[in-house]
Amino acid sequence: MHADTLEQDFSSAPIDTGIGAIIEARGRALNDITPEHVSALLQHYGVLLFRGFTHDTDGFVAFSDQLTDDFSNYRGGGLRFAMLDREKVGGHNTVLTTTGHKANFGIPLHGEMYYMKEPPQLLWFYADVPPLEGGQTTLCDGAALYQALKPETQAWFRDHQIKYVRNLVEGDWQATFMTDNLDEARAFCASNDLTMTYDPETGTVSAEFTCSALRTYEQETLFINNALFIYMGEMAFRSGWAAKNLPGLRSAECPIVVRAGDGSELPKSVIEDVQQTSAKLTRKIYWQQGDIVLINNHRVLHGRAETDSGERSILVRLGGPAFALPRAA
């Protein structure tokens, strides 16, 4: 089944210049969309926005249930501290709020959970209450981003691994690994290729994950990871911004940082190139009530633009596809 054939059944247009597709209802229901539809469309476009369908939150849950296996409850998530942590919604263990959902700051482009061995392939978003102003979900194609980086930046990432380093104080490590049992935390870390140590004097758990910042998808090289997001987070702690704006922090130090594989800080020129280049390639989802978005997390980065302080509710689910979809390597 080809995407161009499906466009005859479901009207489509780009989500924003050069990325994704808006799948309009045209009188159809969500249950008219089969896994075969979604497989072909997502492989072709990377991001799908389902708009104009009649449903509520339960309808979103049912639709995503039909198309997803192995939902994540965000165990091991990198930002499970203070007001950044996600909350369960409506009694569903895998229907969650977005990171820092009550805050108005933006979130840099990133791939979801690339600080562990198996990042989820699918990200679902649902506009329960769209923001009044700003707050757009941002998008960037990982292959386009890699190609647009300076040759010296590309070379640095080809030649160097990156390392995500967590230092989780008492309270933070229990929230992150969703257990107060150290043996369970160790087993979880081992199953996700994290090297974990525990300091009994301070009650701090340290965990490290080393990997490439680059992935290969359908023979294309992608820049997709959590490096920029986590780097900017550490800068927020160093500048004092985090202490002023993130109530409930248990530590004055950023609980997760990114380093080169040898433990040194990432070169400033490399980070600046990533930041400036991704800004040029950023596209946006302008939310409408009831919108459902599906992102191939092995291909497309996402983030969030700054927003007003008004009410908004964008829900998220993470998991694997219940249909054919290539994986990044």
From TrEMBL:
Which InterPro entries does this UniProt record tie to the protein?
A: AlphaKG_dependent_hydroxylases (IPR050411), TauD-like_sf (IPR042098), TauD/TfdA-like (IPR003819)
Pfam families given in the database record: TauD (PF02668)
Required co-factor(s) are: Fe(2+)
Please name the GO terms of the biological process aspect recorded for this protein, alphabetically.
Answer: antibiotic biosynthetic process
Q: Which GO terms describe its molecular function?
A: 2-oxoglutarate-dependent dioxygenase activity
Record key words, sorted: Antibiotic biosynthesis, Oxidoreductase
- Domain TauD/TfdA-like per the UniProt entry, residue ranges: 14-317
**The name this protein goes by in its record:** TauD/TfdA-like domain-containing protein
Protein species of origin: Meridianimarinicoccus aquatilis
Q: What is the lineage of its organism?
A: Bacteria, Pseudomonadati, Pseudomonadota, Alphaproteobacteria, Rhodobacterales
